[in-house]
Task: inverse folding
């Protein structure tokens, strides 16, 4: 079960550390958070945004990802500073994500396995 998220004071810092942010599940729009993390990736700025079981992150290499920690699903949002197209459906009470693959973390390494077809997962806000 995803834990309830609370809004951090600002995007740059807070109790989660520099470059990390925990977003309030009741007052966010996933598309806005995706655009934010894509902008950070374009600036080659490493950031982390946590929304319940979802994690968005950008890297200093210009990559950006959305992952589902529980189901190990992955959606690449940017590569080398360039945004990647994505498709989500969002309402006031839920959103659906067209996932493009799975991920794994082995030690400090993040790996993904992207597929040409999509998996859709509906997540309540």
Result:
């Amino acid at each position: 079960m995803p834990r309830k998220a609370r809004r951090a004071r600002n995007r740059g810092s807070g109790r989660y550390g520099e470059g990390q942010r925990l977003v309030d599940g009741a007052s966010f729009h996933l598309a806005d958070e995706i655009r934010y993390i894509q902008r950070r990736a374009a600036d080659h700025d490493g950031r982390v945004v946590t929304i319940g079981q979802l994690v968005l992150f950008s890297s200093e290499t210009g990559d950006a990802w959305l992952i589902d920690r529980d189901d190990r699903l992955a959606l690449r949002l940017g590569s080398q500073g360039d945004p990647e197209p994505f498709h989500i459906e969002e309402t006031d009470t839920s959103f659906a994500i067209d996932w493009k693959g799975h991920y794994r973390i082995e030690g400090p390494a993040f790996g993904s396995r992207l597929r040409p077809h999509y998996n859709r997962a509906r997540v309540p806000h």
